[in-house]
Amino acid sequence: MGCIENLKYEKILPLGASFKECREYVEKNYAEVWYVEPGYKLFDEYIIGLPPIVLGIEEGTKITFPYTKPCHGTYLLRIEGKEEVERVRKTAKTKKQAGYR
Which long-range contacts (CB under 8 A, 24 or more apart) does 88-92 make? Predict the structure, then answer.
């Protein structure tokens, strides 16, 4: 199993952000947005949270997503990973496909 702490990431929203704040930020600031359910595996970590969990992709190589550290809280972070971007594009859903408004 991987560890987010071992990856080079950039915090977009600070620790303590709500899932709603994360979702709204990504939907407003990213042209390419994907949705996944809790339990989706990203960078060898299972993403937890309140559905829908939103992923933003930029430059074709960077993924921005909410990440929750148990006992610490949630924050929005960005990680470079071209292979992960390609996998997300194949396995995640658009807002319409996911049935979200």
Answer: 88/34, 88/36, 88/42, 88/55, 88/57, 88/63, 89/34, 89/57, 91/36, 91/40, 92/34, 92/35, 92/36, 92/40, 92/55
**pLDDT tens-digit series, residues 30-83:** 999 999 999 999 998 888 888 889 999 999 999 999 988 777 788 899 999 999
Strands (E), the chain: 9-13, 32-36, 41-42, 45-46, 53-58, 62-69, 73-80
How many residues are present in the chain? 101
